[in-house]
Amino acid sequence: MEEKPEAKTGPAPPNYRLKFTLSGHTKPISAVKFSPDGRWLATASADDTIRIFDAHTGEFYAKLTGHKQGISDCAWSHDSTLICSASDDTTIRIWNVKHPSTSRVFKGHTDHVYSVHFHPVSPLIVSGSFDETIKIWDVHTGKCRKTLPGHSDPVSSVCFNRDGTVIVSGSYDGLIRLWDTDSGQCLRTIVNDDTAPVAYVKFSPNGKYILAATLDDTLRLWSYSTGKCIKTFKGHANRKFCVFCTFCVNGGKYVVSGSEDHKVYIWNLQNRTVAQTLEGHKDVVVSVACHPTRPLIASCGLDMTVRVWADETDE
Fold first, then answer.
1. 315 residues of the chain, pLDDT tens digit each
2. Left if phi > 0, otherwise alpha if psi is -120 to 50, otherwise beta: which for 97?
3. Residue 62 near residue 40 (C-beta atoms within 8 A)
4. Closest-CA residue to 281 (of 42, 32, 13)
């Protein structure tokens, strides 16, 4: 008598539940970022400020002020000691988390700065702007090292790869471009068939893939080596806002995104199905972030709140 093959049981689906809600901003929140050491959660807002919270308790730590207009993005340095910000006032600022009352100002863009990212090793920042350029900055001197004029519409998103040798940029012109950090040369251009505006781009943790959000309700996973689209993720709503997306690798491999239908979407990375949706926000969810070591997701958006969700699958 033949033995029946054992039923294949994949990993349990995620079971994220609301852990706490953070408030304090007086206008929509544009970005939320966990620090690389997992200790802090930073939020950037149209109210011209950044707020820092304890990532595990939600306790308020500091408010960073100085920008004259709203902030579209913020980023942490690899050692979790510095935060940089991208503002509509055309400047970038850097704060030391231990001394949050003062900041340094980087000037050079001629229109809203929309995206910033710290180099994972060296003291460099990359920024993308509505002036259609990408700039690479020296953190120590505040000087612009290079300007990359590779797009014909606003640059919505920029990101270094895992070792900082390559920059990916996305633009409203529908193009995703890959740049050599040292030379500033364009290595490759990735074009969607329908050239929908690119709202957000992010390298995968291993650097082999690029996750891109476009304003046609679609996330696409592109191969860095071939420039080909290998997976698409659908179900969320994204036609108007630059909604952030990210990878979640704690407790399973997922792709996470905000959505204009007020939800957070979590897809199974392998089979592209929606594994869970998180409901609670009262307006568009603009930004999401995943904790570096724990199964925590932070989300924020137009309702001026930050929600932190914990996966209770293993509890």
1. 444 444 445 667 899 999 999 999 999 999 999 999 999 999 999 999 999 999 999 999 999 999 999 999 999 999 999 999 999 999 999 999 999 888 899 999 999 999 999 999 999 999 999 999 999 999 999 999 999 998 999 999 999 999 999 999 999 999 999 999 999 999 999 987 778 999 999 999 999 999 999 999 999 999 999 999 999 999 999 999 999 999 998 878 999 999 999 999 999 999 999 999 999 999 999 999 999 999 999 999 999 999 999 998 755
2. alpha
3. no
4. 32
Cα distances from 220 to residues 11, 126, 172, 224, 261, in angstroms, run 23, 23, 16, 12, 19
Which residue do the tokens 């390298």 mark? 203
User: Please, is 277 exposed, middle or buried when counting C-beta atoms within 10 Å of its C-beta (0-12, 13-18, 19+)?
Assistant: middle
How much is the pTM? 0.94
Tokens of 184: 């500033």
Cβ atoms within 10 Å, residue 231: 17
Strands of 285-290's sheet, edge to edge?
16-22, 306-311, 296-301, 285-290
Residue tagged 């030391």 (tokens): 96
Between strands 175-180 and 166-171, the pairing is antiparallel
Q: Which residues, listed in sequence order, are joined to residue 307 by a DSSP beta bridge?
A: 21, 299
